[in-house]
Amino acid sequence: MSWNTAQELLDAITDETGREVFDPATGELIGKAPVANEADLEDAIARAQAAQKAWAAKPVAERNELLVKAAEAIEAAAEPLAEILSREQGKPLNGPNARFEVGGCAGWFRANASFALEPETIVDDETQRSVMVYDPIGVVGAISPWNWPMMISVWQWAPSLKMGNTVVAKPASSTTLSVLALGHVVNSVLPEDLLIVVPASGRIASKLASDERIGKVMFTGSTEVGKTIAREAAGSVARVTLELGGNDAGIVLDDADPAKIAEGVFWGAFINTGQTCAALKRLYVPASIYDEVVDAVAKVAESTPMGVGLDEQNVLGPLQNKDQYEIVADLVEKARSAGARIVVGGNPDPEQPGFFYPSTIVADIENDNPLVAEEQFGPVLPIVKYDSLDQAIEWANALDVALGSSVWSSNEERALEVASRLVAGTTWINSHGTLHPAVPFGGAKQSGYGVEFGVDGLKHVAQPHVITVTK
């Protein structure tokens, strides 16, 4: 099956009696998303449970082949998928945005098909042989967010399906069409009821987490909601992977070249218009090169085009929703009121339609300012001056979230030493937020638990099973 246009794909998934969905860049109506109720969720779980045993019984090679076919189906529908994503989420087609995200979906399906999770011999001596194998869990409840709705869905779907599970997926309410479209394309090549997308409310999501037929819950989103999901899943002792909020710190060392790091710093912070859990959200810079770093990053911000996502020249878009826009605007105003310097941005055009907030660099700001201490999740980067590297490390580690961090330096040995002192699920050196499908990814502290990606990610969507033979 093929879809030549986004409208053809939208026609296949929209519901004329459903909820209206508007473009966050223009305010235009995109379509009407179906709204599922508790009975729909009940039916989806029952169907997924019924289909799971036959799916688990298939050889892993056959499951891998179907993951590759899913990747091929996504690639065949790449442009319609990217257009729907751009219109609903707001991210531009170009840059590390809509086309990039759709390509990543295909790439992650292929990567998971290539990973091999072999039985592990733990002990083999004169008395016994113990082997660890990994069995399917059953039905996975996958709850995805609105910032990377397609990509993060695939991060949940692909490994779960590979390991012989079926999936009931609940997309974010504000990006329902994107995930429905992706699911529709993937399901064109999968056997029936292996992947069921339920376009339900957040209240229904709690039912998904607490249902005793759900063996595993995967959730990406805020720490507050993640805690609720964990409590709901505790009743049935379902396995849980949580990838939660972050307020990632970057530390620039005094040997860094401001001109060389400026673009990497900018995209580490502003990818997806700053709406990324593992984006760089606070930057610590030594006094000796502070002004140079601020000016270099500000120049990149000023030269990076922002606008409607379907316009090919743009690489930054609007905030996805009004609530997030207001959070960002409020935090910038708090910084301004406290005496921080707005280097660029900070003054949205009230006449511009959509939820556009200009790329904003904030300097001369205190570490305890709300813009630094709270996750802004938008196109704003506060840059904090430090005199002591020990103080910068202490500030970086002080918060109760610890998803990612980064160190920027021309000396790898020094950077590695600083990285070893940072608390985070991932620390990057001379980049921030780059991900690879084979490299495990997860959070520390209240940024979640469990990992995704690679062979370790497969283990987290499987039931470890030790088989011991007494000799």
Structural features, described:
With 471 residues, this protein is of the alpha/beta class. 41% of the residues lie in helices and 21% in strands. It contains 16 helices and 20 strands. The chain has helices at residues 6-13, 38-57, 60-76, 78-89, 98-114, 149-162, 176-187, 202-210, 223-234, 258-270, 290-303, 322-337, 370-373, 389-397, 412-419, 454-459, and strands spanning 19-22, 29-33, 120-124, 128-136, 139-143, 166-170, 195-197, 214-220, 239-243, 248-252, 280-286, 341-344, 360-363, 380-386, 401-402, 404-408, 426-429, 444-445, 448-449, 462-470. The strands form five sheets. The chain has a seven-stranded mixed β-sheet with strand order 12-13-14-11-10-16-17, sandwiched between helices. The protein is globular. The N and C termini lie far apart (54 Å).
Q: Which percent band covers the strand fraction?
A: 15-25%
The average pLDDT value, as a whole number, equals 97
What profile does the largest beta sheet have?
A: 7 strands, mixed
Total helical segments: 16
